[in-house]
């Protein structure tokens, strides 16, 4: 009878990384630690602030790495909150607020870089990317306040992170000669966030019209 728990513990300790036993062991260790979701959120903020500083210093590849690391922390805090039971209403508020700040901080640094180079088109695109990234989040929050789930659209947070990460990592061409992706990534980001904003507006309109029609039919 005593061999079964012992064997299970041994499997957790020696199982390959990514195995179910190893994940369970790591998850339990995190839950039992003093780590809090708010600490993860603040670590993500620090990573994005570092990315912005590195953009100002023109270390774009390192900025991309810092941005990716900070964004990964942003995705972990919500999951860890649900998994550990350590979440709170304020923690959820802090998470959402910092997510918006972090994206804007990095894009502000990118906009300053384009301004220093005299690229007015890229500066305008960066401002548009910041504006409509915020609108993507705002439309979801406002819709959910009205009781409408609103996760539709092509430029989700994860997609925006991927696009900007590619732009930062390949801002100097990275061996591709003059083929640089920072400005194109910002143009794509501006267009996709604009489209997503109107996708969400249309979605909410459609849902509310359907609800009104159903209420009249009743």
CATH domain class: Mainly Alpha
Number of distinct helices: 8
Low-confidence stretches: 15-19, 174-178
How big is the Rg? 21 Å
- What is the chains' assembly state? single chain
Q: Can you name the CATH architecture? A: Up-down Bundle
Count of individual beta strands: 0
At the fourth level of CATH, the homologous superfamily is CDP-alcohol phosphotransferase transmembrane (TM) domain
Q: Which shape, going by the Cα principal axes?
A: flat
Q: Can you give the helix content as a percent range?
A: over 70%
Secondary-structure content class: mainly alpha
Strand composition percent: under 5%
Sheet with most strands? none
Report the CATH topology name.
Answer: Four Helix Bundle (Hemerythrin (Met), subunit A)
Essential attributes:
218 residues, mainly alpha, Four Helix Bundle (Hemerythrin (Met), subunit A), 8 helices, CDP-alcohol phosphatidyltransferase family protein, membrane
């Amino acid at each position: 009878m005593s061999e079964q728990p012992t064997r299970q513990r041994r499997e957790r300790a020696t199982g390959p990384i990514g195995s179910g036993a190893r994940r369970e062991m790591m998850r339990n260790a995190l839950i039992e630690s003093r780590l809090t979701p708010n600490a993860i959120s603040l670590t993500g903020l620090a990573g994005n602030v570092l990315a912005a500083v590195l953009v100002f210093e023109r270390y774009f590849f390192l900025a991309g790495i810092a941005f990716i690391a900070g964004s990964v922390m942003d995705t972990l805090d919500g999951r860890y909150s649900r998994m550990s039971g350590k979440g709170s209403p304020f923690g959820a508020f802090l998470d959402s607020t910092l997510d918006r700040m972090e994206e804007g901080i990095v894009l502000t640094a990118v906009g300053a870089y384009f301004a220093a180079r005299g690229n007015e088109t890229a500066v305008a695109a960066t401002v548009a990317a910041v504006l409509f990234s915020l609108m993507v989040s705002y439309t979801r929050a406002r819709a959910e306040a009205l009781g409408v789930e609103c996760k539709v659209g092509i430029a989700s947070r994860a997609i925006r992170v991927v696009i900007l990460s590619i732009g930062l990592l390949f801002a100097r061409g990275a061996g591709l000669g003059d083929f640089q992706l920072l400005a194109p990534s910002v143009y794509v980001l501006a267009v996709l966030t604009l489209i997503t904003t109107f996708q969400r507006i249309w979605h909410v309109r459609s849902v509310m019209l359907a609800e009104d029609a159903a209420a009249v039919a009743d």
